[in-house]
Structure formats: C-alpha cells, structure tokens
C-alpha cells in the first residue's frame, strides 16, 4: 500500500456520505453515477476493504468505511489548506460570527484555528450570546453567520450536527433520592431546559429549578459542585461529570441539533469558506475527555448511536 490515495476519489467518497446517495453525490461532484460507482470500486480495491454494504434497496457504510471517512476528511482538509496557503487571490474582509458560549468553548477553537491558517487576511469578529439573541442579530443584519441550537419552531437554520442530549450530575457527589431533582438550566426559552422539564413532567418525576443561567460555565459549576443536575450535549461533557440514565430514574431525552444561520447577501466565497470549515470541524469533534466513571457510562450510552451511524442508508 505504498501508492498514495486519490484525492478525487476521497472527495467523491465524502460526497456520497454527506448526501446519503450515490446519485446526489454524482450531481455534487459533476460526474455520472456510473463514474462515481467506478471510483468507489477503485477506492475499495486500493484500500483492500469493502466500504459499502447492501442495506435493502440502498447501501450503508461498513466499519471500514467509517474508519476511512475520518481519514478522508482530514486528508481533504489538509489538501485544501495547502492549496490556500499558496493562493495569490486570498479572501479578505471581515466575517461576523455568532455562537452561544458553550458552543464557543467546545467548537470555535478548531474552527477559528483552521480558518485563520487558510484565510489569514479575513478578520473574524466573534459574538457570544444565546441562540435567541443571535437569531435577532441575524434578522437585523448584525451577523454574517451564527451557530445556534436548531429549533424550527423559533428560527430557521441548517442542521450541521446532531448528538445525544445527556442528563449529567457530579461524579463525586451522590444525589438525594428522596428529594425533587435539583436543576441547573438555561432560561425559560432554552430548548434544552424545555426538553428536560417536559421529560421529567411526562415521567412524573418531581424537580426544582435551583440555578438559571445562559452561561454554560455557571451551569457546569453547579453540576460539578454537586448542587444540581443538568442536561448537556455529548460533546460538552466535562471531567468530573456522570451521565445519568434510566437506571438512575431519569427518562431518555431526544437528540439535539446544531444549526447554522447565514446572512443573505454574504459573499459566496466567504460563505463557502467558513461553512466548509464549520462542517468539517464539527464532524471532527469527539466527546470531551472525561473521568473513568463518565467514560464507563458513555461506552454503554454510545453503542446504539455508533450502530445507528454505521447503518446509515445510502441510496443508489
């Protein structure tokens, strides 16, 4: 396996996964469907592994396909960075980005770092506010891009990431079973708070909101101090937190989605540049390093999600 992988084949491979279809991928990469299929056969021959398996009328990624996907995205990103580094027509200007502070803490370092390397002449102006406030700023034209909690009932955004929403408590402080669940959550219009309260109400579990804050730092501090339970997406879990499940008396929660809002009229070049970086970086995010207790809980928690992703249907 000394010959290098073909960049064009990897790009087509990623397009198939992202669109969920060989046919749609063919349109994206401007090739015929037969050409796309041939590229995948050659890529499988080059890797020596089967990347797709039949799943009814469609296809799904195999375990080897999932493994290659991570490498493929990294190779394509590095290739794009190398090309951009020698581009005499680099993008210039200012890009105004909005994000809640919890997303900023987890996602923005890699997004900003990679974007700055490939587009050093673009100034990034970052605003950290709740999703509700960011949507209002977008409506007033005060931001170009905003990462928000996807909530179609309140705002329109393109989903760029979906992940489990978890009940969390301190791994070092036991919960009282004879008292209402103490909650640390966002304000009343926070979607995560609404999901948590609705789940507890439906389960008939008593609770009391003890801490309300837009700040993820404040909420996490209350949890880590053993003063409250909260809900966090999987990628926001921190060392010292314990995931609570049905065995602890907590009902399952629906997954949460991160949405991307874009200002109409933004330069297509800037738009494509930042959205490509955001999509790539979010796809590359893995759960935060956690304590042994949390790691053990998350292994059991992640298995269904891993199987579901491996079984993603791809139609011809």
Offer a concise description of the structure:
By secondary structure, the chain is an alpha/beta fold.
Task: Write structural notes for this entry.
By secondary structure, the chain is α/β, with parallel strands linked by helices. It has three domains: about 5-85, Winged helix-like DNA-binding domain superfamily/Winged helix DNA-binding domain (Arc Repressor Mutant, subunit A, Orthogonal Bundle); about 95-160 and about 255-285, Periplasmic binding protein-like II (D-Maltodextrin-Binding Protein, domain 2, 3-Layer(aba) Sandwich), CATH 3.40.190.10; about 165-255, D-Maltodextrin-Binding Protein, domain 2 (3-Layer(aba) Sandwich). Helix content is about 45%, strand content about 20%. It is built from eleven helices and 13 strands. It has helices at about 5-20, 20-30, 35-45, 65-85, 100-105, 110-120, 130-140, 190-205, 215-225, 270-285, 290-310, and strands at about 50-55, 60, 95-100, 120-130, 145-150, 160-165, 165-170, 180-185, 205-210, 230-235, 240-245, 255-260, 315. The strands form four sheets. It has a five-stranded mixed sheet with strand order 4-3-5-12-6, with helices on both faces. A three-stranded antiparallel sheet has the order 1-2-13. A hairpin with a 2-residue loop joins β1 and β2. The longest helix has 23 residues, at about 65-85.
Mean pLDDT level: 82
| Element-level helix/strand string | HHHEEHEHHEHEEEEHEHEEEHHE
Count the helices. How many? 11
The rounded Rg comes to 22 Å
């Amino acid at each position: 396996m000394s010959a290098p992988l073909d960049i064009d084949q990897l790009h087509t491979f990623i397009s198939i996964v992202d669109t969920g279809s060989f046919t749609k991928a063919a349109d994206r990469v401007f090739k015929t469907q037969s050409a796309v299929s041939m590229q995948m056969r050659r890529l499988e021959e080059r890797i020596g592994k089967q990347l797709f398996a039949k799943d009814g009328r469609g296809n799904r990624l195999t375990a080897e396909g999932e493994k290659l996907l991570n490498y493929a995205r990294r190779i394509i990103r590095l290739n794009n960075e190398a090309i951009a580094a020698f581009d005499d027509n680099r993008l210039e200007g200012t890009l105004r980005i909005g994000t809640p502070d919890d997303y900023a803490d987890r996602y923005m370092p890699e997004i900003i770092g990679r974007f700055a390397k490939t587009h050093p002449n673009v100034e990034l102006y970052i605003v950290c506010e709740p999703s509700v406030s960011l949507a209002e700023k977008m409506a007033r034209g005060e931001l170009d891009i905003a990462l928000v909690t996807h909530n179609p009932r309140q705002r329109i955004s393109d989903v760029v990431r979906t992940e489990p929403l978890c009940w969390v408590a301190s791994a070092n402080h036991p919960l009282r079973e004879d008292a209402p669940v103490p909650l640390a959550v966002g304000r009343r219009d926070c979607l995560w708070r609404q999901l948590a309260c609705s789940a507890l109400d439906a389960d008939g579990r008593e609770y009391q909101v003890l801490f309300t804050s837009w700040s993820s730092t404040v909420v996490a501090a209350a949890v880590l101090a053993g003063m409250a339970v909260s809900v966090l997406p999987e990628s926001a879990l921190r060392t010292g937190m314990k995931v609570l499940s049905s065995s602890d008396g907590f009902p399952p929660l629906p997954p949460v989605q991160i949405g991307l809002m874009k200002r109409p009229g933004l330069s297509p070049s800037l738009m494509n540049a930042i959205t490509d970086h955001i999509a790539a970086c979010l796809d590359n995010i893995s759960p935060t390093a956690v304590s042994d207790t949390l790691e053990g809980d998350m292994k059991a928690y992640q298995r269904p999600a891993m199987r579901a992703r491996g079984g993603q249907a791809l139609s011809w």
